[in-house]
Each structure stands twice: as C-alpha cells, then as structure tokens.
Amino acid sequence: MTDVQAMIMTQEGTGPVRGDTFSPYTDSVGILTIGYGHNLEAKGVPRTVVNMLLSEDIADAIDDVRHVCSVYDQLSRPRQLVLISMAFNLGREGLNQWPRFLGAVHLGNWADAADEILNSKAASQAKVRYQTLATMMRENTSQWI
C-alpha cells in the first residue's frame, strides 16, 4: 500500500462493510458514494470494475447452480446457460424455490422444465428473458454459443 492510499483510506469513509464487501452510502454532503470516497453520482463505475463484478457474479451463479442441481455438469451447454441465467437472476435460494423445475431437469424432461419456466412469477416480470430461457431449455439451443 502506498502512502497516498493509506492516507485516503484513513480519511475517507467506507460506508457499510461486511468482510470484503462494500455497500453504497450517502456521504456527509449527500452524495452517493462507495468504498473510500468514490463518488458514484459524478464518476459512476468504470467498465473494468463492472466487468470484474460480472465475472464474480457469474462464478457465484455457477456455484449456486452446482449446489442445487447435481446433474449440472452432465447437461448440454444451452441448458447449463439456462440454469446459470436463472441463478444469476434469482440467487441460490430463489432457484431452490423451483422444485418442479429442478425435478424436471434432473429427469431430463425438457418440455416440463420449459413449462415451469413459463408458468412462473419470474416469467411475468421478465418476459423476454424467461421466454428465451424456456426455448433454450426445450430446444437445446442458444444464440450465444
């Protein structure tokens, strides 16, 4: 750590911190800030940081899928992508709330798995996303491969 980093880290607030995780906070003059005084309103978040966060969030989603779906590694890539997208959107606990969907995936019943996607609350909130995921699950295809 440099002398400048040490000084700024001492002088600036960090807002709520849990372990290594920083949360946004409103600083003493009302500006939305994160970390050691990074002004989110004026500077936003650099693309490199956003891409790093995306990579970490995807790794978390894959870990979540592996915890709730023991057949993940045996699935085709399009169907893996469906599960990753759902875990990314819903989180581990949210994905665990889909027992009929997960059961259909474990049985390889792709039509039922796709129907469970379409008949969900999530599908009514993010229609295009979940219609795409249902098609990917049913047809074993993906535009991203």
Strand content: 5-15%
At CATH level 3, the topology of the largest domain is Lysozyme
Query: What summary fits the major beta sheet?
Result: 3 strands, antiparallel
Structural shape: elongated
Q: Tell me, rounded to a whole number, the average pLDDT.
A: 94
Distinct helical segment count: 8
**Parts with pLDDT < 50 across at least 5 consecutive residues:** none
Helix-residue proportion: 55-70%
Oligomeric status of the shown chains?
Answer: single chain
**Sequence of strands across the biggest β-sheet:** 3-4-5
Structural class, by secondary structure, is mainly alpha
List the helices and strands and how they pair.
Layout lengths: L2 H9 L5 E2 L2 E2 L2 E2 L5 E3 L3 E2 H4 L3 H22 L8 H20 L2 H9 L2 H9 L2 H5 L1 H13 L6
Antiparallel strand pairs: 1-2, 3-4, 4-5
Helix pairs in contact: 3-4, 4-8, 5-6, 6-8
